[in-house]
Each structure stands twice: as structure tokens, then as C-alpha cells.
């Protein structure tokens, strides 16, 4: 791995350390400066000439700031004659703007894909994109890795009984089914409608949750309003305990307060978004994706199939 360099920007420093440790190298040296007027400068502190560079940066709040940091870092690597610029975006911001839901709306995730490519990215690695068709927005290799295997392994270790996996909406049914296959249990669906961004109403439940331990699985939890409303509905329909899990814990205000005050037994998420210590209440359990991302990078560097690693995390008994 002597030709491999991993850089960490502001949003994913701890995760980048875990990825680098999995590969057996140190995180590369670079400095990120934010000037008083809001401009950003990224300076590489080591040579990348002819090397395979991996820039790790999730684009969560402040989304646009983290995105611009990433674009500038890519440009810095390109101008320093990096051999291959790979971008690891565990949480891909703007993924929820993947289509025109009504007239005169932008498709911002396509715009972000174009910006990354123009800046000089040659490969993208993401985790659980909100919309899988975003992979098609790129004209370069784009690997979307799922965290369902990691979440499934965790819940298997808890040895819960009489489990049902619950999708919080119709769109997440496939995700729920994948987790249910790992846990060998049935699924249920919360039927809801979204009235406006960050606001949704739970209508009813499709499936049997009576006297069952429910695990609600989603890709993103933002303000947790929809989540907590769905949890109350599950209890009203006879669930004896409700756990929740997601890949990306965005947790915008007032999410932490809602989770704390809800009847959630445990809220499980991954570290694609770094959660500050001040938000880590007792109910929150954070799982690391550093190991799987490190193994993915190893496969790429050794010209081996990424699918081998994905399969390893899917087939959990």
C-alpha cells in the first residue's frame, strides 16, 4: 500500500483514522483553513505524485461547506499530479434532491455529481445512498456500499426474540427485507404520507406487530419526527418493544430530544456522520463502518472485486 494515501477533511477525521488503521497506514497530512470571509483553503503537506489518493469526507451539516472543502481538496490533488483520485463520501449530502418532485425544482444530487467529476474525482465510494439511481448520475465508477450487514450483525448479537423488521414507509421496503433476511424474521410497513419536507404523517401499519419486538430500519434519520410518530403507532398496535436503526444519523434539532423522550429502547446508527459527544445520549448506539470501507479500499488497490467484501457483510448467520 506504499502508493496509497488517505486524507481526512473536517467532517470525517475519526472515520478516516479507522479506515487507515484497517489498511495499515497513517492518515495523510493536509491542512484545511477557513478564512474570516468564509473562503476555504486545503493544502496537502505531503507528495501525492503518481499515488492513489482517497479523500474521506461526509457532506453533512454544514453541507455546502463540507462539499466545497471536498471539491477544493480534489482540485489540490489533481494539481499535485495524483495518479488516481478516489472520493469516499460515507454520507452523500443533497441525495434527497434526486428528482423533480414538482415543477421548477432542481435535481441537486446530479449537480453535485457533476461538480465532483469536473473537480477531478475518478471514483466515488458512498454508503446507502438515499436513492440508488444517483449512481447513474456519475460517468465514473460509483460504489454504493450498504451498512445493513453491520446493523444486522449487531441485532443478531442481541438475540432478540419474536422480531419483526419495520419499514417506516413503502420506499424502504427493500431495505427492511434485506435486514429481515439476516434476522430470519417477517417485515411490516408503516403507511405514511409526506405533507412537506421534514413533515410526514403515519397512517396505519401493514403487517403484524402484535406482541413482537419491532426494529424500525431507515437510511436517514433527520429530525426524528416521523420516526417517533411511527414508534407510537407500533406501540398502539401491540408491539412490546421498539428498536430503531439507520445508516445516517443526521439528527438535526430537535431529534435528540425526541429520541430521549420517546419509547425507543435503543437508537442504532453508524458513524458515517460524526455525532458530537454532547449528543450521545444513553439510548444511542453508534456502529463503525471503518472496517468495511477499509476492506473496500484494499480490494480496489489490489484490483479485486468489491463484491467480495459486500457479500461478506451480507451473509451473516
Overall body shape: globular
Number of structural units classed as domains: 2
CATH-assigned fold name of the largest domain: Rossmann fold
> What's the count of strands?
14
* CATH C-level category of the largest domain: Alpha Beta
Backbone CA Rg = 20 Å
Helix and strand element order: EHEEEHEHEEHEHEEEHEHEEHH
How are the secondary structure elements laid out?
Blueprint: E1 4-8, H1 13-23, E2 30-34, E3 40-44, E4 52-56, H2 63-79, E5 84-89, H3 108-119, E6 123-127, E7 142-145, H4 148-158, E8 163-167, H5 173-183, E9 187-196, E10 199-206, E11 213-221, H6 225-236, E12 241-249, H7 255-261, E13 266-270, E14 284-287, H8 290-301, H9 307-314
Parallel strand pairs: 1-4, 4-5, 5-6, 6-7, 8-9, 8-11, 11-12, 12-13, 13-14
Antiparallel strand pairs: 2-3, 9-10
Helix pairs in contact: 1-8, 4-5, 4-9, 8-9
Please provide a written account of the structure:
- With about 325 residues, the chain is of the alpha/beta class.
- It folds into two domains: about 5-145 and about 290-315, Rossmann fold (3-Layer(aba) Sandwich); about 150-285, Rossmann fold (3-Layer(aba) Sandwich), CATH 3.40.50.
- The chain has nine helices and 14 strands.
- It has helices at about 15-25, 65-80, 110-120, 150-160, 175-185, 225-235, 255-260, 290-300, 305-315; strands at about 5-10, 30-35, 40-45, 50-55, 85-90, 125, 140-145, 165, 185-195, 200-205, 215-220, 240-250, 265-270, 285.
- The strands form three sheets. The protein has a seven-stranded mixed β-sheet.
- A hairpin with a 5-residue loop joins strand 2 (about 30-35) and strand 3.
- Helix 1 (about 15-25) crosses helix 8, helix 4 crosses helix 5 and helix 4 runs parallel beside helix 9 (about 305-315).
- The longest helix is centred in the N-terminal third of the chain and has 17 residues, at about 65-80.
- The radius of gyration is 20 Å and the shape is globular.
- The relative contact order is 0.13.
